[in-house]
Amino acid sequence: MCSGNYKKHSVAVSVHKREVPWRRKSITHFFFLYFFMFIVLAGVYYTVLSSGYIELPINDLLASLSDYCRTERVEEDGLGLHPGENVTTLPPATFGVGVWVDESSMLPMVHNILKRIDKRMVEASPSHGELSETMKQKRYIYSFVHLQANTREKNMLVDFKTSDSGVFQTRSDAIKVLSKHARSQQMGLPTFKHVFNPDLSKEMQMIALSIFSLPSKLFGFVQDPQANPIWCHSLDVFQSFCVVLVDTQDQSRVDSNSVSDDMQRHVGLMEKHITAGIASVLAASLSIDSFRPNDIKVWHQLRNQAGCFHAMRSLRALRDSIRDRVDMYSHIKLRGLFTRLQQLVERREFVLAARAADDLQFHPLHAPDQFYPLDYVLTCHIVILLPLFLMTFINARFVADTYHRKRRKNL
After folding, report:
1. Residue 211 forms beta bridges with which residues?
2. Phi, psi dihedrals of residue 376, rounded to the nearest 5°
3. How far is the CA of 23 from the CAs of 18, 19, 29, 34, 342, in angstroms?
4. Residues 6 or more apart in contact with residue 9 via CB below 8 angstroms
5. Is residue 314 in a domain?
6. Final residue of a domain: which of 231, 262, 288?
7. Burial 261-277 (b: 16+ CB within 10 A, else e)
């Protein structure tokens, strides 16, 4: 009995002697492991909280914009014509013009008209001769001309009874019918914006125009179709239609491929009237007096000033948001966008700068859901860091106990 108990006791003591050194060494290893994890986590937190955010020099850029906006005022007859600082709309950098025609002979005619207008707008641009070839804006109008099948004439005349004076007795009757068909044609215009916009960083405004070729005898309210062979109507600022009054006799000559001098003169006169109609519609949509060089220069200057004021308003709103919210910062990823905005301001391309300022203000990294209240942030960080802190302190206590135990043994 005694010998058996002695053996059990000796085995327990030997096991205890083997377990104690292993437990103490493992505590030391765990302490260094948790200490290393603490250093890594502290470094990550420091990097995210300090170098992850920057302070954008918005005030300096606003001072530059303020100086530029004062110099961009349009002087005409000694009076400063400027839209003021309450500009609310973003001026588009380019325009997409969609034209629907129902005669194949109009396709090259309309293309040439739009090219000539775009060329004048580019040549009259204030920065056309100042910027390098790579920075120049080569186009303002991106257009497409679509040939619509000529099957609408019967559909438009179904609800009207013919008479000696024509189908459409008044202008309002014609507008009522033609507006419906113009809207049906132009219904898919917004989808073309993503197709024809060459640079998504530039704002594009789409403009729609439908051109109907109809016999002049259908319009009883037109007194002299020869003197006024085209009339236009605007559905809204960016949607319009024009009606080309065609004489049936002239149309038969065209169909028979007549090349007489009278016919060529008639086609040239018709092209002149169509040019005037398209130019009037585009001028109304672009808010420009005419496409003469001086008027285009004034239009460019007004757009630049409107873009300058719009950029100032966006930057002021962003600055006030950052100043009023102590937990709101600008992420380091926004530095490139701010640098591009500075370059556009230095080149005085204020229309593009207005869009860049909007992109900076409404960037997802400036969204309210990216920034949390201070108490919520502290709670989240404590919940994440508290287990690591506790394990580090417990391991430090074990290491300290081991050190004191060894020191007492040595004494």
Report:
1. 101, 242
2. -70, -40
3. 9, 6, 10, 16, 63
4. none
5. yes
6. 288
7. eeeeebeeebbebbbeb
Strand partners of residue 145: 99
Residue 330: what are its φ and ψ, rounded to 5°? Answer: -100, 125
If asked whether residues 114 and 203 sit together in one domain, one would say: yes
What φ, ψ does residue 245 adopt, rounded to 5°? -85, 115
Q: pLDDT averaged over consecutive 10-residue blocks of the chain (411 residues)?
A: 48 47 59 78 73 82 86 47 56 90 87 92 72 63 82 51 63 89 86 77 88 84 78 91 77 50 62 89 92 91 90 92 79 88 91 92 78 70 77 78 80 68
Q: For residue 207, give both structure tokens.
A: 């403009």
Q: Is 78 inside any structural domain?
A: no
In terms of residue numbers, what domain contains 32?
A: 2-51+372-410
User: Which residues does residue 236 pair with via DSSP β-bridges, in sequence order?
Assistant: 239
Sole residue written with tokens 């007489």: 260
The sheet with strand 94-101 has its strands ordered as 141-147, 94-101, 204-215, 239-246, 230-236
